[in-house]
Amino acid sequence: MPPQITCPAAVSQINDVRVAAGRAGRTAPRFGLNGFLIARDTEAEARHTLREIVVKADSDAPEGFGAALKQAGRSTADGKGMWQDSTFEDLVQYNDGFGTGLIGTPEQIA
């Protein structure tokens, strides 16, 4: 069984593609996700590592990338695109790499 996706932007986009495929009489494609994980012995350690990554990030890169994505999203059918709600923390790893929520102990992530 595939893992349960909980990232709201990803879930919304996957659902939109499935609906569009169904309307066109097609089978929905498979999906891939750009997810980065942080696994540590405890969830607190993993969250601490994420905070360190965010604090040490070159803020210009994620902020510039986020602004470009949000501008591009305005041309989509819904007027926002899939990254409109992305935070700085999400964009430290491009394409919402940490937005997938794969942060915690190996057991939690699995």
TrEMBL record:
InterPro entries: Luciferase-like_dom (IPR011251), Luciferase-like_sf (IPR036661), SsuD_RutA_monooxygenase (IPR050172). It comes from the Bacteria. Pfam families: Bac_luciferase. Residues 12-110 form the Luciferase-like domain. Keywords: Flavoprotein, FMN, Monooxygenase, Oxidoreductase. Gene3D superfamilies: Luciferase-like domain (3.20.20.30). This is Luciferase-like domain-containing protein. It comes from Streptomyces venetus.
